[in-house]
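During the reporting period the student researcher (J.K.) took over the structure-prediction task from the postdoctoral fellow and processed the backlog of single-chain submissions. One of the processed entries is reproduced below for the supervisory committee.
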Amino acid sequence: MKIRLSKLEDVPQIATIINDAKELLASLNIDQWQNGYPNAVQVENDILKGESYVVVNDENQIIATSMFTLRKEPTYKEVIDGNWLISEDEVYGVIHRMAIKKEYRKLGLATFLFDEFHKQLKDKKIKSLKIDTHEDNLGMQSLIKKLGYKYCGIIYTSYNAKRLAFEKVIS
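J.K. obtained the following structure tokens:
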């Protein structure tokens, strides 16, 4: 199993994984990713910016995906009822659009992705990784808390959806 940057020819497989995740969220009555986001165009943009990653198994099948960037997230400027641990003025990592192929859920792939992104940040001496998730997405909240992320407050997405903001200080 390995992590690599996504290629444009990966988009159909990535879209399938994201659509599976949308179905899972809907089945759990979580109103996240139910408005056409994320979509193939978003994934293509991530790939063109070098910010889309996939996990491939030994048969070279894509089994997980995530967007990871060092660009500032505009919606993270204002945190309601809290504060970031590391200043917004410093460079930080951001994860969005993480999804695991349904047949491979609960096997530690999300942790595998987080570990890789933490390592990349550590290698670059960047001290922070920030992420947000839906208040009803208890699975993601449980995972990121287990990985040492701290709740920092509430942010609103560009389409005005409330999200819980978390951050991990990378040491």
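The committee noted the following: The chain has four helices and seven strands.
J.K. will present the remaining backlog at the next meeting.
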